[in-house]
Amino acid sequence: MADAAVNRTGSQIQRVLIAADKFKGSLTAVQVAERVTAGLHRIAPQVEVESLPVADGGDGTVAAAVAAGFERHEVRVAGPLGDEVTAAFALREETAVVEMAEASGLQRLPAGTFAPLTSSTYGSGELLRAALDAGARTIVFGVGGSATTDGGAGMLAALGARFLDEDGEPVPPGGGSLAELATADLTGLDPRLTGVDVVLASDVDNPLTGPKGAAAVYGPQKGASPDEVAALDAGLAHLATILEKSIGGRAAEYAVAPGAGAAGGIGYGALVGLGASFRPGIEVMLDVLGFGPALSRATLVITGEGSLDDQTLHGKAPAGVAAAARAAGKEVIAVCGRLALAPEALGRAGIRRVYPLTDVEPDVGRCIADAGPILERVAERIARDFLT
């Protein structure tokens, strides 16, 4: 463990930093921090605990920003099917955190409903416009958990772009209509975008199209059949071709750039239309949330998420937290609902030890249903092992 501060009696003053993501379907990142804190203090009440809920750009990103001191702003926007929903972004001074899933995420669809061909990102564009209206000069645009595969065309349309068919009429919403696209005009985009730094924050670096593209990799998760995946992929390729005619070769370059395929291709729309720069979501969010100063105060870091598995190692929040903590010489342990990584992989990621809920309650169903109380019991174990 890294060196701890020492009080006047000569004993260590331990400071724990809880920087965990949500347990999806069970606990928000804020609730994870609350439950871990409660368990730690039950065994080691003297320990100082600092909570910094984290996210990697996907759903929960705005909540993490609000927990870190950003102000929550709510606005009515179009959901993925066009119905109006209340979405939120976070603002601190001139920096906004906008989460596309707030407007265009799978959670905005009725339970059990998928609409892979018709879901639109129009509401995400409205959310970005609201952030501009609020005075944002830097926008961290977190993308993930989308219901959409429209290449960001809906988002850009909400910000003033025009996507027209052969008759000069706007193409219908959704990726399934991109095949009808005849012309694209980005000259009407909100002029304020030229004076704003937009950061595309994502945990995936897929290109727009092809076997590793937005439709092929993520379309099935949004209910797309194999034929629909093929149609969506072709539509995204057609969008890039039409945009190349409109704005030149950079449209084709952005189509193969890392992050273009994020969130159904909204990453491409952000790169080509908003002038966004791509950065791994967890790196961006750690900067925005003030992780560095919090890390400097800590002697032990606790991170985690619902499932620690192979995906964790590819840009998810716990891997980012562990990498930063290891670079600072701080010891890292993790909590999770389910563990599917070998000790060697955890060691390479910088995580010394993991405490899964299933070690306390082997029944996975009960772990999901009673995650909070079980997580407190896990935290008690951590306190006994590390803090007493």
General description of the model:
It is a single chain. The protein is α/β, with parallel strands linked by helices. It has 2 domains: 5-52 and 290-386, Glycerate kinase, domain 1 (Rossmann fold), CATH 3.40.50.10350; 61-282, Glycerate kinase, domain 2, CATH 3.90.1510. It has 15 helices and 15 strands. The strands form 4 sheets. A 6-stranded mixed beta sheet has the order 5-6-7-8-11-12, with helices on both faces. It has a 5-stranded parallel beta sheet with strand order 4-3-13-14-15, sandwiched between helices. Helix 1 (29-43) links the parallel strand 3 (15-18) and strand 4 (48-51). Helix 1 packs across helix 15. The longest helix is centred in the middle third of the chain and has 22 residues, at 226-247. Residues 1-11 have low confidence and may be disordered. One of its GO terms (molecular function) is glycerate kinase activity. Keywords: Kinase, Transferase. Pfam families: Gly_kinase.
